[in-house]
Predict the structure.
Amino acid sequence: MQKVFLFCFMCLNTLIAQSQNQHFVNATNGLIIRAQPKTNAKRIGKLPYGSLVKVIKNTNINLQILDQGQYITGEWVKIKFQNFPYLIIENNDEFIDNGYVFSGYLEQLEKAKIKTTIIDSLEFFSFYKPLETKKIKIESQQEAEQLLAKKVTWKNVEFYGRQIDKIKLNNDQILTINQDSFDCSFTAYYPTENILLFEGGHSIDFSINLNTGELTETTGNPDYIIDSANKTYRFTGWFGGQECSSYFILKKENNAYKYLASFDDEICEIIKFYWINDTTFLYSVNDYSDSNKLKETYMKGQISSL
């Protein structure tokens, strides 16, 4: 049976995933939200795989379920979420941004830390080498539509032109776009990463991973991608529409890249980035502390466990 999710894309209010309180929904077929912490409570809706939520209450009400022959243990927790991505239950027009879910299908978003130290320019440039990162990028919407004909359907929307209607993911879930709140325009399709990129108001990035359904906060803009030497880790980011970008690291697991850790949310723009090895890297940022002179600050970063 195909699972159908309704995506309410509010590009200008995209949730920035920079907090330890954020959790990632890892339920392949989506996570049911209920009005009360019990299995027979009213069903509010369902959050697709890859949704980001904030746990606001632990109930200590334990629950164990059998999923594909394996028992999963957890408890009922109360979560807060944005109304996207969100399966709207039929005949339920009330906006709800919180409810109860089973914690067995939630994982902490930040799985590692990025430790940083300031270094001098001599140390930085003793390692740093400018990289040419060439990506396969389809900027013609017509060509992208043809390539994705079996996975993505489009339709004409008044004032906005051609817009996505539905997306069929690798697990046969169907994502249906709510055109009333989707105000982004097509930018590019990246076939190697299987990511669609859009642009919203204030030039904000908005991306969709067509493999999993994940959105910008854990997918990023493919133009930012820099892989480590052994392609075990990946640096990426996305532009938030307010002059600054957000940056994070992905780790390769089972032939897919998964969110690992974010950079300090006070970083506005990374100028240069270079991997020394699979867990150590260099980067530079603009230092705005002196209003009379803009200078570049050089940093060394290390991925470490929490």
Q: What stands out?
A: Residues 10-18 have pLDDT under 50 and may be disordered.
